[in-house]
## 1
Amino acid sequence: MKNPSKLFTTIFIRACLFLFHNMLFFQTLPKILFKLWIKRSTLKENTNLNAYIYTVAKNNCLKRLRDQKYRNKIINTQVSELELELNASALFRLDTNTLAFDEINSIVKATLESLPPTCKLVFEMSRFEMLKNQEIAESLGTSVKTVEGHITKAIKALKTNLKDY
């Protein structure tokens, strides 16, 4: 190494090319100089020092940029995980029971209103008044099979309309 100040200037310029206006440059420059100092005895006389310095500076700068990118990714991942935890916590605290009950109740009412009058009456007698099929059949003057058919029809309509719940 004939001229250390020229060498430093060369390293400085090469590193600046990769880390223009970046604080990584000031963190990388000592590593470049240290690596060059360690390898000085293994360098051959005919080694193109400019090319060697350029390669060392480039590789160190790229390594630092890759490390910084990885750190940023970890920080962003941690932020995302924290955000997910906060969202999950908020969802667990949200009381959806009343909301869901009100919505289901309105769907059931709408479905019952859409049924034919006899079918609606049979279903209400069966489920809300807790009458047996035989009792419903006797009070309406129909067969038990007809009552069962009306109940089945109402249950199918409810299942269809409540499939998302």
Note: Residues 133 and 148 are 7 Å apart (CA to CA).
## 2
Amino acid sequence: MNKVFFIFMIIGVPLSIIGSIFNWNYIFMFFIYCVTLISLANYIRRSTESLSVVVGPTAGDYLMLRLATLQKLLFHFLH
């Protein structure tokens, strides 16, 4: 499953940039954004879980909270 998210991320990020430059169809771009953000959110989730094991549950929860806002920032940046 992680390979699928990796492929979606590798394909989705350049397509998002190219599509926004060339003003592709909004429905198509929305689909690309959703797939790319889901794959990026998976990597952020896995990284925060790995960090919370190392630093402890309190700091891990804080990191999870901070990196959840990163996903929202990525959405606004790509959109």
Note: The mean pLDDT is 82.
